[in-house]
Specification:
single chain, 291 residues, alpha/beta, eight-stranded mixed sheet, 8 strands, 16% strand, globular
Length: 291
């Protein structure tokens, strides 16, 4: 079911599309300025919003979606869905009357992080932000939000050796994200999900949370599978599991995630109502102010 998606969506998925240029053109047509930030061969896109939307008394909320896709996959959900949600969100923020304190990046190179977080484009971007003195920010990562009606907030536990100051900031951000989802009256879950760009920011000491979407039946089945097999959480987090169990563990993942990086991640797999729910979450993030 794709009737509610914008006509540009199909164009974005074409194999020959320059996705970075597409994003800039789409936003430019809606009066939103952007800039390309080149870091380690990656082309990250920064959204330039009016200065009137910022107040130094409140924490900055950096909102991320990666725009690159896996080879040989249309990438309709992973991660074109989040890109379109954030592009339309940026257009709303450009006309926002008041303070939102939101910074938006479309990142490049997320799909390169399968062998290690330092490969991720977000890792080098976060490192560059640190070098520029940007440290005190909350990071919200959106990934694969085009299927289902159940928001999933990624479940993470800070490493045991993490500095106390970081743990405090991470827990505060995690609670803030939970409060936002609860305030909207949504049926949301807090479960482990595969790392996205949040891994690159966490590795650089930035508190970061990730949000995705799942159909209700997939979320329920995934929750039951996690309760019945502890190895599934380790598999999702890319940790060591018995090799003989890998195929069986993969089959316990939500179908939405099993479609990622395949030709099944196409327009027909999306549900338009997912985009409306994600828009509500983004708008609530904009309205939330934290000192």
């Amino acid at each position: 079911m794709t009737a509610a998606l914008p006509p540009e969506y199909e164009m974005f998925l074409r194999p020959n599309t320059d996705r970075a240029s597409f994003i800039q053109t789409y936003l430019g047509a809606r009066g939103v300025e952007t800039a390309v930030i080149g870091v380690d061969g990656k082309r990250h896109i920064y959204v330039k919003l009016p200065r009137s939307g910022y107040n130094a008394a409140f924490r900055v909320k950096t909102i991320i979606a990666h725009y690159d896709i896996a080879p040989d996959s249309p990438g309709a959900n992973d991660n074109s869905s989040s890109v379109f949600c954030l592009m339309d969100f940026a257009a709303r923020l450009a006309k926002f009357n008041g303070v939102h304190n939101c910074r938006i990046f479309f990142t490049d190179g997320e799909e390169l992080g399968s062998e290690g977080v330092k490969e991720q484009g977000a890792f080098s971007l976060a490192s560059t932000m640190q070098k520029c003195g940007i440290r005190d920010e909350d990071i919200y990562v959106f990934d694969c939000v085009g299927r289902g009606t159940v928001p999933l907030l990624g479940l993470n536990v800070p490493p045991a050796k993490a500095p106390a100051a970081f743990v405090k900031k991470y827990k505060a951000l995690d609670q803030s994200a939970k409060a936002i989802l609860s305030s909207l009256g949504l049926n949301w879950v807090n479960l482990p999900m595969p790392y996205s760009d949040n891994a690159g920011f966490l590795a650089n000491g930035f508190p970061a949370v990730a949000i995705t979407m799942l159909p209700q039946n997939e979320a329920s089945a995934y929750m039951m599978a996690l309760n019945s097999d502890p190895d599934l959480m380790r598999y999702v987090k890319n940790q060591d599991v018995p090799e003989k169990k890998i195929d069986a563990l993969h089959q316990q993942l939500p179908l939405t995630w099993r479609l990622m990086h395949t030709d099944g991640d196409n327009l027909a797999s999306l549900t338009p109502q997912s985009f409306a729910i994600t828009a509500r979450i983004l708008d609530a993030i904009a309205l939330r102010k934290t000192v």
